[in-house]
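Recap quiz, item 2
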Amino acid sequence: EDQVTQSPEALRLQEGESSSLNCSYTVSGLRGLFWYRQDPGKGPEFLFTLYSAGEEKEKERLKATLTKKESFLHITAPKPEDSATYLCAVRASNDYKLSFGAGTTVTVRA
Amino acid sequence: NAGVMQNPRHLVRRRGQEARLRCSPMKGHSHVYWYRQLPEEGLKFMVYLQKENIIDESGMPKERFSAEFPKEGPSILRIQQVVRGDSAAYFCASSPGTGPYSNQPQHFGDGTRLSIL
């Protein structure tokens, strides 16, 4: 069974204080690793897809990287609007569904 | 989350009643997925449908739950004889499908919050 573990569970940052979120995964053949952002009362909003080890994707203050066992989401110089729960999910090569981690809740204080 | 439309946003039912949750996928998407998010837990896959076909229902409870995606109209997740443990947020996602789009991400709606009294 696919497993996704995210750490830490919660992260409190000062505005401008860069940090990283971790997503460790076990999957039988990775088709893709996905990062989503979820705001309270909303559905997950797609951020990135990573397909193979060594791949990196960037969007504004966010950068996602991938190794064979884990992915990192780096937040550079965060702003209060980056406060959200960040979800990591994997999709196996022979499957359709996404298997999600429990998420990391990021709070950025001004 | 513009595009995937779910309704109602909030639904309150008494134990034993039926709940019907609706999902209209993004324009051009023919594949629909339902996920459930229990309090303090992550999103869990329930079922994957294409038009008029259930492809994978491995995450669906064996009793009281059913899903459909008819040729015309939205996908429906139906829960019969609801119990307190069914209280959760139910999310629908859609994607363009397989083949050339097999790595396309799933896009989510804003969910239906189901509360059982």
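The CA atoms of residues 12 and 75 of chain B lie 20 Å apart.
DSSP finds no helices and eleven strands in chain B.
End of item.
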